[in-house]
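Bench log. Compound arrived from synthesis this morning; before running ITC I wanted a structural hypothesis for how zinc ion sits in the protein. Inputs:
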Amino acid sequence: MTAPDFAPAHNDASQVLRRVFGYDDFREGQQEIIEHVVDGGDALVLMPTGGGKSLCYQIPALVRKGTGVVISPLIALMQDQVDALRALGVRAGFLNSTLDFDTQRVVEAEFRAGEMDLLYLAPERLRLESAQRLLDAADVSLFAIDEAHCVSQWGHDFRPDYLALSALHERWPDVPRIALTATATPATHAEIATRLRLDDARHFVASFDRPNIQYRIAPKNEPKRQLLDLLRTEHPGDAGIVYCLSRSSVEKIAAFLVDNGITALPYHAGLDAGVRAANQSRFLREEGVVIVATIAFGMGIDKPDVRFVAHLDLPKSVEGYYQETGRAGRDGLPSTAWLAYGLQDVVQLRKLIDTSEGDDAHRRLQGRHLDSMLALCETVECRRVQLLAYFGQEGKPCGNCDTCLTPPESWDGTVAAQKVLSAVYRLDRERRQRFGAGHVIDILTGKKTPKVIQFDHDALSVFGVGEDLSAGEWRGVVRQLLARGLLAVQPEHGTLALTEESAAVLRREREVPMRREPERRAPKTKPAKAAAAAAVAELSEEAAATFEKLRGWRSATAKEQGVPPYVVFHDKTLREIATVLPATLGELGSISGVGENKLAKYGQQILDTLTG
Ligand code: ADP
Ligand code: ZN
C-alpha cells in the first residue's frame, strides 16, 4: 500500500473537494468512502444515480500517489467524462477502441510518466495483455469499477467482460478497488461482492431516495395526448427522456412530438450507429432536447439537467424503472418521473415472459420482477415508500408522489371481480375460440358486437350484468385482477384464464379491494416545480433574466470548446450566481461548483457577463 506523499491525507480530501470541484461539503456517505479508499481499503458502494459516486473515486485518485484506473463500459461517454475532468484541471485520459494510434501513444506515454490522475478503460481493453503490461509500468492508485452491476448475470445490463475483473486483485493485490453501482437489490448487491471477489471490502449503502423526483403513475388512456399535456404544461423547453418498448413506437412518438413543435429525436438499436451517436450528442450538447428511446439509451448519461423521464410502456422490473427514472434530476432540482400504464401492458408483458427463451427458472424470475412492478403501479400507498422497500430500505410517506398528492380512493371490487371471473369461466368452456379482455368487457357491458352475436354471447347469463361501470372502469378491474394474479393470460393467444386463486373470489371467500380509476378527473397533482419549490428557491424575475444571460454565455462557450454546456457550469451553479451576483473573483469562487481552475478560466468572463 502506498502512503500518501503528504499528510494528513483526510484534510487533503476536503481541500480537493473545495479547490478542484468547488464544493463546500461532502454529500451523505462520500467522506467515509473517500477516507476508506484513501487509506487503501476496498469498497463496494451502492448509491442512487445522482448521489455523487464519481467523487468517491476521483478524490482518492487525486489524493493517492499514482493514476486512478476507472473501468467503465460506456465507451461513447468517456470523451465527455474526460472533458469534464479536464475542465476542472484534472489530468485525465481514456483508452478505448475509438482512439487513433497516435493519440493512444500520447495517453500511454503520459500514464508511464506518471503524469495522469485518472485513466478510463473499457473492460474488454483491460483483458488485453498489452494493457495489463501498461498498467504494470507505472503506479496505479486505485481501480474504480463503475456500473458494477454489469457483472450480474441476472441483472439487466450483464457484460461478460466484467467477469474477468475478478482477476484484478490477483495481479495487483496492493491496489485498492472500489466498485460502484446504482442498482441495489439485495441479490445484485451480493452477486457483485462474490463475482468481483470483494471479500474484504467495506460495503457502503446510501439511501436510495431521490427526494427531488416526483413519481407519478397514470392510467393509460390516450398516451400521446397525455404525454403532450405533460410536456406542454409542466416541462416546456425542458430536456427529458421518453421511454418506449419497441423501435417502431419510438419512431412514431418522436415524429408525433416533432409534429407538435417539440425538439424530439429517436434513439434505438435499429438506427444507424452514426445517427444514434449524433442524436445522443445533440441531447447532451443542446438545451431542451427530448430523446425518445428504447431502454438501449441512458446508462451512464450524466447530463445533470434532465427534467423528466416519461415511460409510455411498462418497464419489466422495478430495478429497470428505478434506473431509468433515476436519470432525471441528477442536479438535485425538481424533476418528474411519469409512467402511463394500462391493461394492454400487463397482457403484453405476461405474454412476452411466457413465450421467452430460457429455462423455467428464468421465466419465473421475470414473472416475479413483473409482479413487483405491477404492485408498485397498483399501490394505494406512497410510491416512494414502496420503491424504497423494494431496495430493502424504509421511508415515510413523501408528499411528492401522485398517491401522496392525490390519495386514490379504494372501493370494494369483489362483486365486479366475480362478474369478470365468471364471464371468463363461461368463455373458457368454449374451447373452439379464444377471447381477449375486450370481448369480455363487451359482454359485461352488454354490447352487441358482431363477435358477440356470432357466438351467441348475448345469451350468456353474464351478458349486460356490468352496465354499472364504464368500459374504461372495467379495463381497470381486469388490469387489477391480472396484476394480482387473480386472472392470467394464456401465452399463445393472449386469452384471459382463471388461476388457482380465482376460485376463492368466485366462492366469495376473498374480498377484492380496488383502486378507483382517476380516469377523467383533472389531476390534482401539483406540477413538479411547485411541489419541490422548498428545495430550490424560485428565481426572482431579475435573477431569471440574469440566469438566461449566463446560459447564453455558457452555450457560446461550450460550443466553442466542443463540450456539453454542463461541462462548463451546471444550471445549479448559474442559478446561484444569478441570485448572489458576485462582484469579485473572490466572491465568485465561493459559489458551489466554481473550483480554482474554472475560476481562473471563466471568472472574468462571468463577471463581465453580469455587468455587461
Ligand atoms: P452518480 O455518478 O452517483 O450518478 P455524480 O457523481 O454524477 O452522481 O454526481 C451527481 C451530481 O452531483 C454531479 O453533478 C456532481 O457534480 C454533484 N455532486 C457530487 N458531489 C457533490 C458535493 N459534495 N457537493 C455538491 N455537488 C456534488
Ligand atoms: Zn409519496
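What the model suggests: The first strand starts at residue 43 and ends at 46. The chain has four domains: 8-205, 213-406, 410-516, 536-611.
ITC booked for Thursday regardless.
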